[in-house]
Amino acid sequence: MITANFLLLGVFIVLLALGTPIAVALGLAGAAAVAVGLDLNTVAMVGSNTYASVAKYPLIAIPLFVLTGMVFERSGVAARLVTFAQSIVGPRRGGLAVVATMVCLIMGGMSGSGPADAAAVATIMIPTMLKAGYPREFSASVIAASASTAILIPPSIALIVYSILVPGVDLRALFAAGLFPGLLAGLAVILPTIFLSRRHDFGAAEGSERPPFWPSLRGAVPGLMAPVIILGGLRSGLFTPTEAAAVAVAYGFFVGVFIYRSMRWSDAWRVLADSAETSAVILVIISLAGLFAWAGSTLGAFDHAAREILAFSGNGTVVLGLIMVLLLVCGMILDGVSIYLITLPLLVPIATAFGWNLTWFGVVMAMNIAIGQFTPPVAVNLIVTAKIARVTMEATVPWILWLVLCMGIAMLLVIMFPQIALWLPHVLGFRI
Question: Model confidence over 176-232: pLDDT tens digits?
Fold first, then answer.
């Protein structure tokens, strides 16, 4: 068993180091460990366990929310949200950077994906910010950090995965618990952005015109209503999270085709194909990560690792600090969904042993992973924005460090004061 457990971890690490796709690394590591550590009858269950990992009704929400994000992106919602945010912020030093953060927060309530959020907003905002005098590196950094809030703002795809993997956690409570920490993370981006913009005189060429508020609001209302419909329907019990995703898709097509009239029915197949491709990648990772998790649980690898961590220190604060460091390192290398899939079989027993609230713990994990999404060397969000801004990732580091520090402080506040996350689901009557 010990050999199989080492094989599970060793094969996974070696394959990652060789640049193997995360899904392949997870699947091969799990299959190799099962083949060595278990009997032939158990090995025969590899295929069924891989399939069972994705044969779950709540997972239907993932491709539907991915489709929702793409529909709103293609229908011109982001551009109208930018105009609306500009009408609120107005022309000032750092104004466009604040607008970018506000739009990322709202778009996060539609797509649930940081990289998708980063791509949609960066495509619109970076050319505008460059004309106003913002450096490319600064613009890419701000949008990458702002887009990371999508993992917290409902409907977060990563939180959907968390609710499936952690028994007894209500997805509606998770969505509600992520809202205020997500807004706090957005504020943690806005404050240093304003400070740095004024200190370095960024945005000097923003101009003096402010878009009229009421026309901008009217144009943005259909987009702003999407998060309201999703959260309102969940709160009222009108539909489940999975049904909410289907409602959001139908609403997105209605907005794009009949209200904004920026989409034709002939565009639908392209949107469906692109979202299917993205969803397939996510679901393949989930299926093979399920095999990895099943292998680790069956072989006892996760239980053994959890006991070692608990034996290292009986102080919950020390253990939580170690977990946060581990997650931050993982976040620099992997995407949020993969991190949840790989680490939760190990971390949930530890959280249970210390009596941590699992809803709060899921949100804290999400905040930590959000920081990793824009922290080099990999930084999935920063890869997207740096490519659009045509800069190297290394050039963004002086600006990224400010944002990492401030969002780290925001995460520390949620750790110290759990009610920041738990107050809203408690008020709404969700089980936490």
Answer: 999 999 999 999 999 999 999 999 988 776 666 788 889 999 989 988 888 888 878
Domain count, the chain: 1
- Write out the two tokens for 359: 């809803």
Q: Is residue 16 part of a domain?
A: no
Closest CA to 179 of 379, 377, 352, 430: 430
| 3-state secondary structure at position 240 | coil
Chain centroid to Cα 362, Å, comes to: 12
CA distance linking residue 176 with residue 153, whole number of Å? 9
Single pTM value for the model:
0.85
- Give 393's contacts (C-beta < 8 A, 6+ positions apart): 376, 377, 379, 382, 383, 386
Domain presence at residue 162 = yes
Domain assignment of residue 29, yes or no: no
The number of beta carbons lying within 10 Å of the beta carbon of residue 92 is: 15
The label of the residue with tokens 């220190």 reads 313
Buried b (16+ CB within 10 A) or exposed e, 194-223: bebbeebebbeebeeeebeeeebbebbebb
The rounded mean pLDDT for the chain is 86
SS3 of residue 181 by DSSP: helix
Print the domain residue range for 239: 57-281+301-427
Helix (H) or strand (E) holding 403: helix 397-416
| Dist CA 66 CA 183 (whole Å) | 22
CA triplet 187, 63, 113: central angle to 5 degrees? 20
* Contact present, 430 and 390 (Cβ < 8 Å): no
**Which residue pairs from 383-388 have beta carbons closer than 8 angstroms and sit at least 24 positions apart in sequence?**
383/115, 384/115, 384/118, 384/119, 384/122, 384/144, 384/147, 385/118, 385/122, 385/126, 385/139, 385/140, 385/141, 385/143, 385/144, 385/147, 386/140, 386/144, 388/119, 388/122, 388/123, 388/126, 388/140
Give a yes or no: residue 240 inside a domain. yes
